[in-house]
Amino acid sequence: PNQGQVSQWVQGMNQAITAKPDIIVLNTAPDPRVLQPQLRAAKAAGIPVLVTHFHDDSSPPPPQCEGCAAGVSALVSAPFYVAGAAAANWIIADSKGDNHTLIVGANDALPSPGTVETVQKTFADNCGDTCRTSFVNVPIPDWNTKVQSEVQSALNRDPSINYVYVLYDAMVSGAVPAVQTTGKAGQVKVVSYNGSPFALKFIQDGDIMAMDVGEDTVGIGYTNMDQAFRMLTGMDTVETRTPIRIFDDSNVEEAGKPPEPGVGYGNELAEGFTELWGLK
Q1: Cα separations (Å) of 25 from 42, 47, 111, 172?
Q2: Which whole number is the average pLDDT over 57-71?
Q3: Whole-angstrom Cα distance, residue 182 to residue 69?
Q4: Terminal C-alpha separation, the chain
Q5: For residue 158, how many other CB atoms are within 10 A of its CB?
Q6: Backbone torsion region of residue 187, taken as left when φ is above 0, otherwise alpha when ψ lies between -120 and 50, otherwise beta
Q7: What pTM did the predictor assign?
Q8: Which domains can be identified in the chain, with CATH numbers?
């Protein structure tokens, strides 16, 4: 576990290279763009590096993907932009085309600027002038300490905001209290992306957290391991895609009560990979 500090990522990579593993997996947070010396060292040591859930599905494969040339061997990408468009369309439908959405992103996260652009374009294309957006940037290391204060300030500054879209579930624990503290419960809805059990439970338990674009974390695990197995056995890597599902009051109970990782998405990925690997 780390707090998103570059120094922690560097330390982790250095420890991994020293251990001489068969593969290094940078899962979700470590940014390959700031680990160029470590990636070169891993490549020189003959250690392949897999980066997962960091690049959008639209990214090219290594070495062309951003931050990849120094030594990234393969990706498992994620549908960040698709999820952003899905969230915007849900807000349009839920608000009947009349909303002011505060988007909370992190410019230091590679997919964040593109997701924000996708969300704003979706509002413009599908809603027009009656859908407005504002934006606040909270860097990754500040998520635990500044999301609540930034959202509170925005809500106090502009009473017309009626939706808060935090791009990642890790920001939800700051956004929900911000709505409560400003007395906006029942007036402002929070939406997010990832489908973390704690965020889905917010939907089940109250009216502030209204929707989450969920992703099958169990299925993502199978996808990550399939790519890793291919790398370890000398097979060609493949372009990957993992699904999303919108959860709101209409279906959140299907995620379990309380919500559980991987529940509510079906079993196709697990069963398909198990069969592909010859274990079924």
Answers
A1: 12, 10, 19, 26
A2: 97
A3: 46
A4: 34
A5: 12
A6: alpha
A7: 0.94
A8: 6-78 (no CATH), 80-215 (3.40.50.2300)
